[in-house]
Amino acid sequence: MPTRNRMPFAHERRRAAGIVTVLVLVVAVAMLGTGLTSSSAGDLQSQIATGKSAASSLGAQIAADSAQIRRTTHGLADANERLAVLQNTLTRREDQLRSVQGQLLAARNRLVDLENQLERATKALATNLVANYEQSPPTLVTVILEAHGFNQLLERVNFMHRVAAQNAHVVGWTRTARAEVARQATLLASLEHRDQTLTAQVLSQRNSVAALQAALLHQQISELAARGRAGAKLHALNARLSSLEKKAAAEAARAAATRNASVGGIAVDTGGMVQAPPGAPAAVAQVIAAGNAIATLPYIYGGGHASFHADGYDCSGSVSYALAAAGLVTSPMVSGDFENWGDPGPGRWITIYANAGHVWMEVAGWRFDTVALAEGGTRWARGGGEFSGFVVRHPPGL
């Protein structure tokens, strides 16, 4: 075969080191992530279906969160009613506490007065007792004998009666004062106990009110935040779905305008420059239609390997794309892999020519080759092709 001058990209060179392959895959993934590569209708529909499923899940989550928030809101209303009851009880307890504290203060003052009176009465009684001990109290006989006249006698007798009555009064009053002091001390102890009890109840109710308010507010804030996050995700997902659906509609319109269809997610062109001959198997017609769909797309090194759908294809990406339309391959293959693919030798309808650096094929007498793209602007050509140094394989049965 004569040697032909080819553009630099006419042949791939399989690298022994994995660095180039990794770089190519990274670039391809980055292109997919940035939306620079084209997507087929199958891919778009798959993404849309996945997005709708995720949106449905998010919607269900938001509905559940909203229901929980409603329950929490009802719980908050019930809790507010409980808080109102607690607050009323707390107010009454505080009023009682203030009243008891007032009574307690008055009781303490009363006890101090009684203790002072008891002290004075005790001193007076003690003074009388000392006086009686030091000076014998006059008897009725001595009063009569010592009296100078009847008037003086009456005066001394009355004085004796008054002294006796005063002593009896002091003794009785002292007893009464002591009893009153004891009773007031008991009342004071009771009021102090009541004061301690009411104080503990007030503090407990205040703590209960504060804890209930904090728990309800924390729960409500947490639920609202969770629903907000899910709502933001759903909004972003719906925007993505809208974009995908618009893209799918545009792809469908383009396919209708170019008479392109889809086979297994692979775009094909049944009205392109190459037509399957009469009697050709359906697989051959599908391979040709897929080749038509990408025949004039540019050569891109590594194109068609990250995904079947790209803006351009290298040699192995082109062959993989066309064969995938007929279900003959399930994922893109590199040139060297075709050396062991299928059955050995030429096929009746499709023949693969492969080595480590390049792969091309003949389909129903047509050459499908990126070298032809460099020469004539389309991957399809009549005749030509490089045979020396290539392993010849074909799809089983074809």
Q: Enter the CATH topology name of the largest domain.
A: Helix Hairpins
Instruction: Give the percentage of residues in beta strands.
Output: 5-15%
Estimate nothing, just give the exact number of structural domains: 2
The top level CATH class name of the largest domain: Mainly Alpha
Mean pLDDT comes to 75
Radius of gyration: 56 Å
Helical content band: 55-70%
Major β-sheet strand ordering? 3-8-4-5-6-7
Order of helices and strands: HHHHEEHHEEEEHEE
Low-confidence stretches: 1-40
Q: Please give the number of β-strands.
A: 8
- Main sheet record: 6 strands, antiparallel
The secondary-structure class comes to alpha+beta
> What is the assembly state of the chains in this entry?
single chain
- Give the terminus-to-terminus CA distance: 26 Å
CATH architecture of the largest domain: Orthogonal Bundle
Summed up, the helix count is 7
What is the global morphology? rod-shaped
